[in-house]
Write a structure and sequence with these properties.
The chain is α+β, with helices and mostly antiparallel strands. The chain has 8 helices and 9 strands. It folds into 2 domains: about 1-40, no CATH class; about 55-235, Glutaredoxin.
Length: about 240
Amino acid sequence: MRPAIFPGFELATVTVQDGKNRASQEFYVSSDGRYLIQGNIYGLNSDPRVEVERMIRTQGEPSVGPANAPVTIVEYADLECPMCAEMQQFIEKQLLPRYGDKVRVIFKEYPLFNVHPWAVEAAVADECAYEIDPSKFLAYRSLIFENQKSIQKDTATQQLLDLGAQAGLDRAKLSACLSAKSSLPHVRQDFQEGEKLGVASTPTFFINGKMIPGAMSPAEFFKTVDQALAETAKK
């Protein structure tokens, strides 16, 4: 048990592991020991979007766009998810060119390890790329998505290293990081953060704290971003 930010409650994290599968969930326990609450607590005197934004780590995370952009888009994605691959193309070819420095996109790892056999390894490789050379992260991430259909579980390691070389990453450093799983703690942090926020599928976006589960059409996405820009302008 540890102190919670909410008066009258303490916080505990319960982790369940079955072989390679691992999941964590936070529980709030009333100080008198009478009540157990699964999920998040939101103050009714504050904007729930602000509460959500407070829970998302933004420092030291892979991103594109200025830190002071009026709109922050946080994406929880699985590198083996076909819909995530489509949204990556949308982000790079439509969203960023349209809004320029008005948006910042933060990329989070949310590998669906129960259904995607090489998603965790790809997420680890992706974060390794960020640790090795942040400037190559986006190119590497895009290459993984572009080659998604050809990557196989048995050959994933070699293929991820080959794609890293194509993106300009030091192959030896990427291989060492991938073998040691050096970035796995970062991947777990992203996943556990997503769980706390209620992420249940990929991709899931948070646009200035507003949760958008699943892919949207370009028109709908643009409309949501435009609304966030308008709200920011009013503030």
